[in-house]
Amino acid sequence: MKISIKRVINICLIVFSVFGTTSACIMKPTTNISSPSNTSTSTSTLNPIVIPPTHVGEPIAWAIAATPDGDLWFTEMNTNNVGEFSPATGKITEYNVPTANAYPHGIVLGPDGNLWFTEPSGDKIGKISPTTGSITEYSIPTANAGPFGITAGPDGNLWFTEITKTNGIGKISPTTGKMTEYALPTANAGPSGITTGPDDNIWFTESYVNQIGKISPITGKISEYSIPAANTEPNGLTAGPDGDLWFTEIDGIGIGKISSVTGEVTEYSVSTTNAGPYSITAGSDSNLWFTQFQEDQIGKISPSTSIITEYNVPTADAGPYSIIMGPDYNLWFTELNQNKISKISLATGIITEYALDN
């Protein structure tokens, strides 16, 4: 039986709140990698990596975001930190989240130039200044909301999913800190991934009920769309260059897209079975790039031809998790099980890995 990553994370939240540790929750994918279409790889470890005194245990990068200066910012759920990694120097700086056991997860660059992140266990939204490292936290009105994914909206607000008790979508003003929450029509939907669509609506995945949702930032009206295949567990979501929304199916056949105009869903099978596609982003090459957590691969799909190409991550049991396009127009992703941040070159398909520990 395949691992349901999202459900493992929810179990981790419970374990963390009770025992104060997530050591039993670090996931190891099954290694059974098919030969990819392109296997060009290289590895690099930058030394020395500077770890400040705030570090306790090994940093494990979960979600990732980038700032215009080229630095990568990431959440460390296991150490309750937000980290900053400079690809130019290899230096890592970590900033401790004020709320203990906050379990920071989603992170995104806000319209105000700050990094905004979710605290699933702390029931807060955090903000960190990339210039000073100062962190400000904002409490969510509803208890046990479980904020998870986060995105910058077209209205200047930050929008986030509430995956646990609240079962809804929230927004926060970066200028006032005011929050508004919207309950989903479907109970126990498990909203997780979230992004702004080409239609200026906020789109999100409903992992537990096999649906894609959207909410109007103007009216707050919510619409939900069923995925044709059963039990796909949709997760990551991004706007594509074709005007559609593209999403991953952790337990489905691979990758799906939904029309922002009609709501019609189309699904595409990845070559590797049980790959566990998790996070997805649009590349500057007009392709969609995604992580395949279970089989240690990075995939890409062309929206014009539907051709899928897969690339092996050099390190076994890497657990590629979150992926973004960086300021250098390459793709950057986290390796959940190996304490690394890695880059895949758009020009060559070569993967370079950077260790986050010595």
What does this structure look like?
This protein is mainly beta. 4% of the residues lie in helices and 40% in strands. The strands form seven sheets. Strands 1-2-3-4 form a four-stranded antiparallel beta sheet, with no helix packed on it.
Contiguous runs where pLDDT drops below 50 for at least 5 residues: 13-56
Indicate the CATH architecture: 7 Propeller
Tally of helical runs: 1
The CATH homologous superfamily is called YVTN repeat-like/Quinoprotein amine dehydrogenase
**Overall SS class:** mainly beta
Kindly report the CATH topology. Answer: Methylamine Dehydrogenase, Chain H
CATH class: Mainly Beta
In whole angstroms, the N-to-C terminal distance is: 35 Å
Number of domains: 1
Radius of gyration, taken over Cα atoms and rounded to an integer in Å: 18 Å
Number of strands: 28
Largest sheet report = 4 strands, antiparallel
Main-sheet strand order equals: 1-2-3-4
